[in-house]
Specification:
By secondary structure, this protein is α/β, with parallel strands linked by helices. The chain has a single domain, classed as Rossmann fold, CATH 3.40.50. It has six helices and eight strands. Strands 1, 2, 3, 4, 5, 6, 7 and 8 form an eight-stranded mixed sheet that branches.
């Protein structure tokens, strides 16, 4: 996982350790909150898919998935866990380099603990591209980082609650939960979290 460091220092990610720490973790509870809103036939874009908990969740329901991650190792882990006949397209790319246009449009976009790592200018540009590729009535689920988060000084995109609500204004907000408390990372490193969990539906 990312180590605590000053904003001017490089962000070092020990991906093998992160994958090892997360592979046995359960599916995040937001997927259970998303489920009642899912249509019958779904094409999903899973951004920052990691070891693939979300991908496997959607595959188990017979959905088509485009799984994106910058790590080749992560995509190989997901590929090794897929059942025969799963409809999954793998794309190895960081978000800033990801060309969404050839991938088409989506009924659901999921970005679990991934979007906020972008710096603000890249975040705004990528957000606009995502919204263009989400169908009217489509669902969007993920997390946004709050201003009180311990990682806020690193140059990631952080928002106040008012900022989050403004960002989600074009949507029907189905779920918005703000968490501001001491906790730990996936690798059991103590950390103060300020995070917004959201599920939203794009207006027609």
């Amino acid at each position: 996982m990312l180590k605590a460091m000053a904003a001017t220092e490089p962000h070092i990610v020990d991906w093998p350790a992160y994958f090892a720490a997360t592979i046995e973790k359960p599916l995040h509870p937001t997927y259970a909150l998303l489920e009642p809103h899912l249509p019958t036939t779904v094409r999903v874009l899973e951004l920052g898919c990691g070891v693939g908990h979300g991908v496997l969740y959607f595959v188990s329901r017979g959905f088509q998935v485009v799984a994106v991650d910058q790590s080749k190792e992560a995509l190989e882990i997901v590929r090794s866990c897929l059942p025969a006949g799963a409809s999954v397209e793998f794309v190895q790319s960081g978000f800033e380099d990801l060309d969404l246009a050839p991938l088409g449009t989506f009924d659901v976009i999921v970005a679990e603990f991934s979007l906020f790592f972008l710096p603000p200018p890249a975040f705004r540009a990528f957000w606009a591209r995502m919204m263009a590729d989400l169908k009217p009535g489509g669902l969007f689920m993920g997390q946004l980082l709050g201003v009180n988060d311990e990682w806020a000084p690193r140059g990631y995109t952080v928002l106040t609650r008012a900022g989050v609500e403004q960002l989600l204004a074009p949507f029907e907000t189905l779920h918005l939960e703000e968490v501001d408390l001491d906790g730990e990372t996936s690798q059991r490193v103590p950390k103060h979290w300020h995070i917004f969990h959201f599920i939203a539906r794009k207006r027609p």
